[in-house]
Specification:
The chain has seven helices and no strands. The chain has a single domain, classed as Tetratricopeptide repeat domain (Serine Threonine Protein Phosphatase 5, Tetratricopeptide repeat, Alpha Horseshoe), CATH 1.25.40. By secondary structure, the chain is an all-alpha fold. The protein is 74% helix and 0% strand.
């Protein structure tokens, strides 16, 4: 598929998920990166790729991908929640809280975000 349509992100996406599911994060990450370069508008792909990046201890790439997911799809709950967790771990409590507050304006029924914001 990649050889026939190198400009189509799906081939890299399929390889990325296949390698991830085979517990080959090192092999999956470059395919996730290529798929995202070709099509950065898939919030689920970005969120899944960020999880692999985090397992590879690459929080910088994970934050970049999650931020792209949230900006492109503001209602991407998994991406927003994971990004919140990283921001909190990095000590950016204000940024993390702002991220969830912005999300609640769009999705006021997100109980997990309400609970997270209740934690000082």
């Amino acid at each position: 598929m990649i050889a026939r349509r190198p400009d189509n992100y799906r081939g890299h996406e399929l390889l990325a998920y296949s390698r991830r599911d085979a517990r080959d994060d090192r092999g999956a990450l470059p395919h996730f990166a290529q798929a995202i370069d070709l099509f950065p508008g898939d919030a689920e792909l970005l969120t899944d790729a960020a999880a692999v990046a985090l397992r590879m201890r690459d929080s910088t790439t994970a934050v970049q991908w999650l931020t792209t997911a949230v900006h492109g799809s503001p209602r991407a709950a998994r991406a927003r929640t994971r990004l919140y967790t990283i921001l909190r771990a990095r000590g950016d409590t204000a940024g993390a809280r702002r991220l969830l507050s912005e999300g609640l304006r769009l999705e006021p029924g997100q109980r997990s975000w309400i609970a997270l914001l209740a934690v000082p």
